[in-house]
Structures are given as C-alpha cells and as structure tokens.
Amino acid sequence: MTQTTAGRPTSEPAQRKQRAQIGARTLRTDRWWLAPAITFAALASFLAYGLWAVFDKSYFVEPYIAPFSSPCLATSCPEGARLFGLAPFGDWWALPPGILILGFPAGFRFTCYYYRKGYYRAFWLSPPACAVAEPHKKYTGETRLPLILQNIHRYFFYIAVVFAVILTWDAVLALRDEHGEWGHFGLGTAILFINAALIWAYTLSCHSCRHITAGRLNHFSKHPLRYKMWTFVSKLNRRHMLLAWLSMYSIMIADLYVRLVAKGIINFPLA
C-alpha cells in the first residue's frame, strides 16, 4: 500500500525510513531521567553495603545472626552461629563466611524479572526509559552470553526458598535470650521476623513461582488446589516490584541492626 507526499506516491519502505528519522534523543518533556537515577542510587547503595557486610566480622551475637552471613557453614563461624551446629566446609575455608552463601540469594535477585528491568535501565541504559533512545548501537536481548544466563532464574527460585526457610529459622532462634532460654522478644527479634515475612512474600511473588504452581495447566477446573495456589501467588505477583524493594531494604536493615548490636553500638539489653 502506498501513500502520497506532496502529490507524489511514496513506497512503504521509504515511508518507514522517513518516520524513524528523529533528531532528538527523545520528544519527552518530563523528567524521565529521575526514575533510573533513583534506581541506580538505591541499587548501588545496596551493593556497597553488601560488599562491606561480607568482610565485616561482627555478624553474630546471641541470639541474633546477621542475614548476610546466614547460614554460617565454616568452622571459623562462632559455635552458636552455625546452622544446626554444622560446619561442612571445615577449617580450609579462610575467607569471610558470607562469601560462601551470598551468591545464591544474590543470583536470585540479579536474575529476577523486575530487577532486570531496574538495572538494565539504570546501569546499562538499555533503554534508560520508555520512548528514550538507548546509546547502544546493537541489541541482542537475552539470546547471547552473558545475558542468556538470565534463563536460570527458575532454578535460583528453589534455592531462594531454602534461604527463606533459614532466615525464618534464624528469627525463631531469636526468641531465645543470650543464655539460651526461650521467651525473649526484643526489637531485633521483631526485625528478623518482619524481614523473614518480606523475604517470603518477595520469593513467592516471583514469576517463576507463579508458573510452577499452575502455569502449565490447561484446565484449572481439574486442579482446584493448584488453581487456588496460583490465584494466591498471582495476587502477590501484582506487588512484585514493591516487595522486591521492601525485602531488599528489610534484609539490609536487619543485617545492619545485628551488626550494630554485635559491635556494642546498640545496647544489647534493650535490643
């Protein structure tokens, strides 16, 4: 089909080429750069804190263990900090305990569908915002290395569930006092329980979890229980972005709180 320009017919290919020629980077007049800038600052602060926390040695004080160092699996861990008293990595592991385990929850968040959107725009400017041209000349999506590895997100989900269980167990153990007696409930206990709840909400709101519950079913009527599970997860999934941010900051706050108590900056009897 052809259209006319100044009385002369114009072919479709020529028309498409003409329409794509926009000199400005974008025609948007709003502050489109603000959202990616805030996302960049927020994610960068979390990464900076995580790097510091990995090498900080004040991660345990009865009955609290910092989430960034849990589970503690080396003999270098304090005895009360070891998961079920186990130390499968023995004496040979000399690096900070957090390095053993942080890659797994970090991998779950790094490959998360929402976080991809966030750091693709904020760090890689691919694209920085809707209707804004990106600076890259070529786009291959997630079809080549390294981004093709994003497809392992569904496997990180299973590992994330394990870590959610561990953080919940840490919150339960925080119901003890420094002498091992049950019945303690300090501010730190509340913080750890809130963090565990938000971690569960974020994990279960994951798109992979939604697919696992009933994403491959053709007839919901034949699987009423899985349909109810899918409905519940779908409601959480609508808040996945919010839960991603809340859980990210809750685990950072919980981790920092425990470290401040361990350093004596926060008075333990009031903790």
From TrEMBL:
Q: Which domain of life is it from?
A: Bacteria
Q: Which organism is it from?
A: Sphaerisporangium siamense
List the coiled-coil residues: none
Q: Which UniProt keywords apply?
A: Membrane, Transmembrane, Transmembrane helix
The entry's protein name is Succinate dehydrogenase
- Show which residues constitute the signal peptide: none
Q: Is Transmembrane helix one of the keywords?
A: yes
Q: Where are the transmembrane segments?
A: 32-55, 92-115, 155-176, 182-202, 242-262
Show the segment(s) annotated as Disordered: 1-20
